[in-house]
Write a sequence for this structure.
């Protein structure tokens, strides 16, 4: 290879969004400005007189006492706030949701990984040990959607995963998987790393409590509303701490992990996809909502640092493709 080949190959990799190092992003968004909205379509279930929730780009989550997300490198506390059933209750649907789907991704070929930092915040009852008004909401993340139709627990056209910030998702349903419109459970599908018992998706299962300890709300929240934000969460839930959710499609299985701990492994043969877009959102397992000031303030899922990266095998193929282009050019 001549000396002049290296810049050309570097250009091939740069244009593709990849590099020699594993994990170079195909797509990334820090949600630091409102310009991020151009990358997404938003879907919000309707209330009686308007939308049930909303999406706020470039939201300064330090207002809730939340520190910078783990993959933030510049100290920024801007992200996207996604809320459902906080303005009013959803109607005409079995569940409420606010969800955003990308609309700018190229066709994704496995292996690839989608990762995002998320903070699940909620209003407590008499404390955050139990969910309060509209507390039974979860963090949702999906792949394989077309980006033009809603991707949530009542209807999705790819694979969707969901984890609850509190214990409001039900004793056996804190960590969920949806394959197209099917909602399997650990006794019917061997997807869950925690096992195949009726409680293997429960927040109280020892598998989850081992790496998801109890947390307290930030002092800014306990000071503002000690009657709802005091106390501590149950162990095994996502609330009041940053977590990194990752979905990896290796071509054979789709693996969901939280903070490096495998949650579920689903064979790609078990679902179909409608496209290559990804989604993040806030699902409510019921329809009840509240427009109370504290409900609007505290019930929110905060997302930051969304990335889509090729896995090492993809980068190797990309490099080989670049070499082939170089060789053709030299002839």
């Amino acid at each position: 290879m001549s000396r002049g080949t290296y810049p050309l190959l570097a250009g091939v990799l740069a244009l593709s969004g990849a590099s020699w190092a594993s994990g170079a992003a195909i797509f990334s968004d820090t949600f630091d400005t409102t310009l991020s909205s151009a990358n997404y379509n938003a879907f919000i279930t309707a209330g009686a007189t308007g939308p049930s929730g909303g999406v706020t780009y470039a939201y300064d989550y330090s207002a809730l006492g939340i520190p910078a997300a783990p993959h933030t490198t510049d100290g920024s506390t801007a992200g996207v706030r996604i809320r459902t059933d906080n303005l009013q209750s959803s109607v005409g649907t079995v569940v409420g949701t606010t969800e955003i789907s990308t609309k700018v991704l190229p066709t994704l070929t496995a292996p690839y990984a989608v990762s995002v930092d998320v903070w699940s915040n909620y209003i407590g009852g008499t404390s955050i040990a139990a969910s309060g008004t509209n507390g039974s909401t979860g963090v949702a993340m999906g792949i394989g959607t077309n980006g033009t139709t809603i991707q949530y627990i009542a209807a999705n056209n790819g694979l969707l995963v969901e984890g609850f910030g509190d214990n409001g998702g039900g004793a056996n349903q804190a960590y969920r998987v949806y394959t197209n419109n099917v909602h399997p459970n650990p006794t019917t599908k061997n997807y869950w790393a925690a096992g195949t018992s009726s409680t293997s998706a429960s927040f109280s299962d020892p598998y989850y409590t081992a790496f998801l300890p109890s947390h307290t709300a930030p002092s800014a929240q306990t000071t503002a509303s000690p009657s709802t934000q005091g106390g501590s969460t149950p162990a095994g839930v996502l609330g009041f701490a940053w977590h990194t959710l990752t979905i990896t499609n290796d071509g054979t299985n789709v693996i969901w992990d939280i903070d490096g701990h495998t949650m579920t492994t689903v064979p790609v043969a078990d679902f179909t996809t409608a496209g290559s877009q990804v989604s993040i959102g806030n699902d409510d397992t019921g329809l009840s909502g509240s427009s109370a000031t504290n409900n609007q303030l505290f019930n929110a899922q905060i997302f930051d640092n969304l990335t889509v990266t090729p896995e090492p095998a993809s980068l190797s193929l990309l490099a080989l493709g670049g070499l082939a282009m170089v060789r053709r050019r030299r002839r």
